[in-house]
Amino acid sequence: DIQMSQSPSSLSASVGDRVTITCRASQGISNYLAWFQQRPGKAPKSLIYAASSLQSGVPSKFSGSGSGTDFTLTISSLEPEDFATYFCQQYYNYPHTFGGGTKVEIK
Amino acid sequence: QVQLQESGPGLVQPSETLSLTCTVSGASVGSGGYYWSWIRQAPGKGLEWLGYIYSSGPTKYNPALQSRVLMSLNTPKNQFSLKLYSVTAADTAVYYCARVDLVGVVLIADWGQGTLVTVSS
Description:
The complex is a heterodimer. Chain A has strands at residues 4-7, 10-13, 19-25, 33-38, 45-49, 53-54, 62-67, 70-75, 85-90, 97-98, 102-106. By secondary structure, chain A is mostly beta strands.
């Protein structure tokens, strides 16, 4: 199985901050990477697919980059509704595997 | 807009069978070329992909669970289901169902809210 690791596992930030989350694959996955957001008690929501393509309706403050083994999710300016857990998923090989998640908390 | 809702017992005895149903609205489970999927998250752990059943019926399971899992479609009720046999405490988790649209590198997923299943006597 392809192992996905995320860092940091949690971070504290303020409204307006720029935040970057890293996801690393144990082997190359081209750009078969998705990012999801999960607010407490809510269903996960798709943000990005193909490492850098925004899902329809997702605001442009979210961006993704990377290819191969190293990927990043950036939130350009945090807003209150962005405080949530973010996780990456590779879909290059089965079984699809997820990163451990990054919890973004209010400082 | 598609909506998915998991349902099933919140408590399952060890060695018994965990059975969950995902009721879908806004889409038909038997058409559209979607991957109707199950994912779980054990307390304090990351997400684990369990597998999918395709709109036309083929399935693919996580090899780690292959011998214990069965997914099926119920097109008249517009539902799909998960059965996990011989459960242990390690199967305690929030279980999510999801509709996954996967074409090449494009992946779009809609998830249910999740349901907590505890395995305990």
